[in-house]
Amino acid sequence: MIPKEYYDTLNIGEEVTIELHEGQLVIKPVFKVDEDFAENLLEELIAAGFNGEELVAKFKEVKQQVLNGEKPYL
User: Fold this and answer.
1) SS in 3 state form for the chain?
2) 45: Cβ contacts below 8 Å, ≥ 6 apart
3) Rg of the chain, C-alpha, whole Å
4) Residue 25 half-sphere exposure toward CB, CA atoms < 13 A
5) pLDDT score recorded for residue 55
6) With bands split at pLDDT 50, 70 and 90, how would you rate the model's confidence at 51?
7) 41 and 62 Cβ atoms separated by less than 8 Å
8) pLDDT in tens, 2-47
């Protein structure tokens, strides 16, 4: 059982992943993304002024942040 204060702080939904990292268990919430995730992300990045290779690099960076359950920074 995960203590409520951690549950609330991590904004854990119905699923988590548990990984062993350097002898410690790391618990991360699982975030489900909708099917329009990539399109929405690209639109936001373009609106933020990214283009060309910079757009591709930022897309990869932010996509990985989201898939890791982190809050993305544009």
Assistant:
1) CCCHHHHHHHCCCCCEEEEEECCEEEEEECCCCCCCHHHHHHHHHHHCCCCHHHHHHHHHHHHHHHHCCCCCCC
2) 55, 58, 59, 62, 74
3) 15
4) 5
5) 95
6) very high
7) yes
8) 888 888 887 777 888 889 999 999 888 777 777 888 899 999 999 9
